[in-house]
């Protein structure tokens, strides 16, 4: 591996300093691990398939998630918003149903390009038995109660990160959610079209015109959420495969978004239509995992927003994992 010396600071470096596989003893595992993660496989299942320890898969999944965060931010820097954006929350859990969170997503209405996601911790809601209410109160005394307005702040962060130029009118499409309404009202340039969720009849009954209009308007984002719940076991409605931490959930979602935008065809039934990134002119052909992992990305060069850096540094606090490992390396971003 040839080494070079910088003519300015006189420090030496090699080509490996700018490769995704820096410091890796088994760089060949990155691509099969990435494929397994977006396919919904568990870390131990992937480890048995590629022939390594499950902790290796866990550490590599964290690196892939950080890389996907920066790659998505670089892609947003090359785009200018020219379509309506559909926003909606995506509820999931970490550890158990007593630690819910929401991962709001923003999807292009025409291109189906996923413009980003956010994070907000929530309080467990719905019908609870007396035992469940007592247990929820116990956990809230120990770990604290989620802050009020966290979902609204997550939507604000999501809208703020849309690649819209200064003075550009942003067209949002969403269901009739109070948090989305309040978040959109904070931006004078946002025009919100809200569709109320109509009452639906028994399964198999015909949809009302209101329900049909709502489903057509929000289809790209609803499809993304169905795809996520189908592909990722941690996000299914009834599951025992909960994500372990908030940081892990966001990292895995970030990898999924990069795969969905750049690698996966926009429609599996019509793969010749290309990817969502091709619809926007961001790429001229579908990417492979080799393209995704072709270069090491540095946060000091990409300059992501502060809320993205919180995920990058793994500073999201999962209540039942107070000793979770953070990403605070000195010589490796």
Total helical segments = 13
Distance between the ends:
21 Å
How many structural domains are formed by the residues? Answer: 1
How would a textbook summarize the main sheet? Answer: 5 strands, mixed
- What percent strand? 5-15%
Q: What integer is the average pLDDT?
A: 91
SS-based class = alpha+beta
Rg result: 21 Å
The overall strand count is 10
* Spatial sequence of strands, sheet with the most strands: 7-6-3-9-10
Strand-helix topology:
Blueprint: E1 3-5, E2 12-14, H1 30-38, H2 43-50, H3 54-77, E3 85-88, E4 91-94, E5 96-102, E6 105-108, E7 114-117, E8 120-121, H4 130-143, H5 150-160, E9 170-175, H6 178-185, E10 190-195, H7 209-217, H8 219-231, H9 246-263, H10 276-279, H11 289-292, H12 299-302, H13 306-312
Parallel strand pairs: 3-9, 9-10
Antiparallel strand pairs: 1-2, 3-6, 4-5, 5-8, 6-7
Helix pairs in contact: 1-2, 1-3, 2-3, 3-9, 5-6
Structure report:
The chain has one domain (15-312). The protein has 13 helices and ten strands. The protein has helices at residues 30-38, 43-50, 54-77, 130-143, 150-160, 178-185, 209-217, 219-231, 246-263, 276-279, 289-292, 299-302, 306-312; strands at residues 3-5, 12-14, 85-88, 91-94, 96-102, 105-108, 114-117, 120-121, 170-175, 190-195. The longest helix is centred in the first third of the chain and has 24 residues, at 54-77.
Tags for this entry?
10 strands; alpha+beta; 5-stranded mixed beta sheet; globular; single chain; 3-stranded antiparallel beta sheet; 333 residues
